[in-house]
């Protein structure tokens, strides 16, 4: 590993000054440190942000939730308010990594994790993301795990985060700060498709630090699920995944959120499918038609063409499961939770 500087920031202004001077933020280090060991990432200085006062979770007026950027994935998954109001998020986190990794990984770091395309870490292979302009070895190589949506001729790597797929379905907003001020970015706009610049993965400026993620009050999210299909039962990246929230009344879809993972270069909000689902009968036929429309623009290669059918089936299975559960209105009856309830341990078990 190359030598690097290390600073543990005692407060936010110190961290923002360091980032403005070129330091890379260090959360749990579960991805960045790995890549430094493999000489893919070469930061000159790391600024450790885990001691900053960004580890809290606070209810927002109206029922939303503000999640500090250095909240550990394990804490977020176990939070009783998250489990009751946004079960899709807790499930995505638990599906996302081993317990050891969840104990280290932070919310901000999870959003900025980099691709698991094997060529990205292989210095003998061409990779536009690692070395801009060098080419893409995956196009003519191993691409079973690669994306079919949002790709370009310069990169077809799938986005690796499970958590981000759930958050994009939940209309999450990311708060970022820099020495220039604070701004908010809808999570659906944080990650950039590869286009001609696959190495530019987000819309963050170089001096910006993710400080929080905010979830709006979203009643439909009480009836939500994350379903992940992978090669082995645990500790593997998604071949395909689906984050869905659904409310059905009198057999008709009255609210829906849908996002896809493992199939796209960014956490993929399935807006075309949502459009077709809303006010339609909650039937398998509707679910199939919506999933097919969302995947219509997919571009597959020989080894990942199976993902198109697999993710459509996973969408149908997930929506069918949600449609047969109690409606969110029924579930809300007597189950509205407050932070006091969250603290007194009356709901569910910790992960
Ligand atoms: Fe690199 Fe993207 Fe091609 Fe993988 S798919 S080799 S990350 S450019």
From TrEMBL:
This is Xanthine dehydrogenase family protein subunit M. InterPro entries: CO_DH_flav_C (IPR005107), CO_DH_flav_C_dom_sf (IPR036683), Diverse_Substr_Oxidored (IPR051312), FAD-bd_PCMH (IPR016166), FAD-bd_PCMH-like_sf (IPR036318), FAD-bd_PCMH_sub1 (IPR016167), FAD-bd_PCMH_sub2 (IPR016169), Mopterin_DH_FAD-bd (IPR002346). Keywords: Oxidoreductase. Residues 1-220 form the FAD-binding PCMH-type domain. It comes from the Bacteria. SMART domains: CO_deh_flav_C (SM01092). Residues 327-345 have a biased composition (Basic and acidic residues). The keyword Cell inner membrane does not apply. It comes from Pseudonocardia adelaidensis. The keyword Transferase does not apply. Residues 324-351 are annotated as: Disordered.
